[in-house]
Recover the amino acids of this structure.
DNA sequence: CTATTTGTTTATCC
DNA sequence: AGGATAAACAAATA
């Protein structure tokens, strides 16, 4: 489920725990979500006694910052939601445990829960006792699509370099377009009027310009709706057809009212409207 | 029972 | 060597 907007939404779900002290952590130790930790139990136990200070999102990555007075002072919990990861907070007294609650942070008032039934998500942990610095891997993340570093020139270079791959596949590469996922990319290409099968290198200058505009406006629009409170993106967007419960054969382009084409492109199910995406 | 899934990593092929 | 594509991961849902 989670692309940049959903990730931002889930980031906020732990906000009730801000300022709270960690009393204990609970985890399903053998689960795949801890695959990057050598000793999950021992490492994550290091959060005990620390206070949840703040959090941030970058593309599909989340980072939760914990702090305490004795060394190490700064503790960094990384969360990737994979395909089915979710975060939620419950009042401790009312906590109803689900069998896929693989990681739970217990505070005085709340429990902060990471739930992921397909286990493609990932929990990481870093600590250092010097000054405030996010971990190395976080600092090396690529420019966000809504940052000023995401320039037209930067985009052109990427499309040139990955010129032979379908544009759909290229836009899904997290090392270039952090946070874009399957539905956002389809929406972007639909709004930009670009056929998802086109080789990335075949886009003309004005198409690249339009693509950049749509990458940014669709990302912004998704963040303002789903990212805020899970409300629906703008009514005119194509994604509503995709999410509708209609049979595939009955899904239509909101613009042309003709059937959408649904095929695998770049290894992923792709929706597009042939009459307006060239 | 079979096919499908909004993600990423690894293996394999070109 | 570097890039493109397929498979694997795991579990729920249609």
């Amino acid at each position: 489920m989670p692309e940049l907007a959903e990730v931002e939404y889930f980031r906020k779900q732990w906000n009730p725990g801000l300022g709270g002290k960690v009393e204990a952590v609970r985890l399903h130790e053998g689960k795949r979500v801890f695959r990057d930790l050598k000793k999950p139990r021992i490492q994550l136990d290091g959060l005990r006694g620390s206070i949840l200070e703040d959090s941030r999102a970058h593309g599909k990555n989340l980072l939760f910052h914990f702090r305490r007075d004795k060394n190490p002072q700064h503790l960094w919990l990384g969360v990737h939601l994979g395909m089915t990861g979710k975060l939620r907070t419950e009042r401790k007294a009312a906590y109803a445990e689900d069998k896929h609650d693989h990681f739970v942070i217990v505070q005085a008032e709340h429990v902060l829960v990471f739930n992921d039934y397909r286990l493609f998500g990932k929990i990481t942990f870093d600590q250092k006792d010097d000054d405030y610095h996010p971990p190395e891997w976080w600092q090396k993340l690529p420019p966000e699509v809504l940052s000023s570093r995401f320039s037209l020139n930067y985009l052109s270079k990427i499309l040139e370099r990955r010129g032979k791959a379908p544009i759909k596949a290229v836009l899904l590469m997290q090392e270039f377009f952090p946070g874009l996922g399957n539905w956002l990319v389809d929406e972007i290409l639909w709004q930009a009027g670009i056929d998802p099968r086109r080789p990335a290198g075949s886009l003309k200058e004005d198409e690249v310009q339009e693509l950049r505009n749509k990458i940014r406006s669709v990302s912004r629009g998704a963040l303002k709706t789903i990212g805020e409170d899970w409300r629906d993106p703008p009514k005119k967007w194509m994604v509503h057809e995709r999410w509708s419960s209609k049979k595939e054969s009955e899904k239509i382009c909101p613009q042309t009212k003709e059937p959408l084409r649904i095929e695998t492109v770049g290894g992923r199910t792709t929706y597009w409207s042939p009459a307006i995406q060239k």
About this structure: The longest strand of chain A covers residues 51-58. Residues 1-3, 6, 60, 80-84, 118, 120-122, 172, 174, 181-184, 242-243, 268-269 of chain A lie near DNA strand B (CB under 10 Å from a C1'). The two ends of chain A are 28 Å apart (CA to CA).
